[in-house]
Each structure stands twice: as C-alpha cells, then as structure tokens.
Specification:
This protein is α+β, with helices and mostly antiparallel strands and 250 residues long. 42% of the residues lie in helices and 20% in strands. It contains ten helices and seven strands. Strands 3-2-1-6-5-4-7 form a seven-stranded antiparallel β-sheet, sandwiched between helices. Strand 5 and strand 6 form a beta hairpin. The two termini are 25 Å apart. The mean pLDDT is 87.
C-alpha cells in the first residue's frame, strides 16, 4: 500500500463517528444511487463506508469488460483495489494526493456544504494488448455528520475522450459550478518558513545544517518538521517531500 493510500485510509476510517442515528436507510439509498449510475453510464461506481471499512463496487458494461462483476462487496478495505490494479503506480499516487487535498480542503467547509464538492481527475487504464484508455474519475462524499465527519464516499469511473492537453486534477463546487483554486489553497497549507525548511529537506539537508543556514535553533527546525508532517498528513519526511513536490509547494 502506498504511503499516501495508507494515510488516506487512516484519515477516513479514523474520524469521529460518535454521532447517533441509523445509517441503514441512507446506505440503501446510496447503494441504489451507485447502481443507477452504472446502469445509465455503463461506468463503475464504488460506495465506501468509512466507519465499517467496507466498499461496494457496482459495474456497468465497461467495468465488466475489465473482469469486474456486476456487484462485489469488500469487507476489508474502503478502497477499490480491483479498479486500482488497472492504473499505473504514478497516477495512483497522484489520485491519492488529490483526495488528500480534497479531504484537507473540506475541513474548512461547513458540514452542510461538504457534499456540494467533487474531486475530478483523468486516469488511464492499462489493458493487456490494448492502448491506454482515458477514464474520468470523480470522488465525492454523500453523507457528512453535523460534527464534520464524513461517513460515505462515492468514486466513479467512466471512459473519457482522449485529449491532447494534460487535464490536472481539480475540485469543483457542483452547486455553483466554480472550480476551487488549488494553488491558492495549497499555498495556505504551509507557512513561508515551513516551505523554506521543506525545500532544504528535499535537498538532503539535515536539521543542524538547516538551523545554521536559517539562523534558528535545531529545536525550532524539529518543531517545524513535525508541523509540516501534521499539515501534510504524512508520517515521515520522505513522504512530505514527495507531496510537497507534487503539489508544487517546493
């Protein structure tokens, strides 16, 4: 499992689900919604229950040509590894980082508005003996509790026309049609000093070297390093540097 995927799973399944109330009826409604999506688009819909660490995969004709059954339940993960197996490791990491950014962005959004947003990107399915297939991938959250925790997520996949230009992942407010400026949001994740330290870490500098270069104490560098890991939601410096590079923070 990628570092980003492990962190994402920990975030989603480790939320506060203490809000009372039955999920049964809402879960059935969400299942019907996912199934209807596959019937009308021939695509793939994955409904994830973060509290119970379960996912439900529905496949239309497109998914079935990849060998997926019309319906499958996975009680051991919130992630659709059967679908992920068709995507390169590089693009899969990009996909996970986009959802990490999506989750982080939604922390600043009121609970009643969280379901208005979608994270969208293009991935490419690798099929044996066939050219790469462009696929439109979306992630959205269907049920958010009053305390801000997200209970259900829905990921969808459907074939998308080949385009010459690279389509970057983005977050869209489906109520207003506005696209979130990820560059502006990303720039607010870390302070100028934290970005400076992360840049030096990316160059292989140690805490003592960074402290001397910036004229600060080693303890201050260590505190900033811990804050960087917390803000980027990773567990080690290598993962922080990787995300910092991919998000163009450094």
């Amino acid at each position: 499992m990628h570092e980003q995927e492990h962190k994402l799973q920990s975030l989603l399944t480790g939320q506060d689900f203490s809000t009372k109330g039955s999920l049964t009826e809402l879960l059935e409604t969400a299942k019907n919604y996912a199934h209807a999506y596959t019937q009308t688009t021939n695509g793939i819909a994955v409904l994830s229950d973060y509290q119970n660490n379960v996912n439900h995969i529905y496949s239309g004709q497109f998914g079935q040509t990849l060998g997926l059954p019309e319906y499958a339940e996975n009680k051991n993960s919130i992630f659709e590894h059967e679908v992920f197996d068709n995507i390169s490791d590089e693009e899969l990491v990009e996909r996970h980082i986009l959802e990490l950014r999506f989750f982080r962005f939604l922390e600043s959004v009121p609970a009643v508005q969280k379901t208005d947003f979608n994270a969208i990107c293009i991935v490419h399915f690798q099929r044996q003996g066939m050219p790469l297939l462009s696929v439109l991938h979306t992630t959205r959250y269907l049920l958010c509790h009053a305390n801000g925790s997200i209970r259900l997520g829905l990921c969808t996949y459907m074939p998308f026309p080949q385009i010459n230009e690279v389509m970057k992942g983005c977050i869209i407010n489906t109520r207003t049609g506005e696209t979130v400026c990820l560059e502006l949001f990303d720039s607010q994740l870390l302070s100028r000093r934290q970005i400076e330290i992360l840049s030096l870490l990316a160059k292989g500098e140690g805490s003592k070297q960074i402290a001397d270069k910036l004229s600060i104490s080693v303890n201050t560098v260590s505190r900033h390093r811990q804050d960087i890991l917390k803000r980027l939601r990773v567990t080690n410096t290598a993962a922080a540097v990787e995300i910092g590079l991919r998000m163009r923070l450094i």
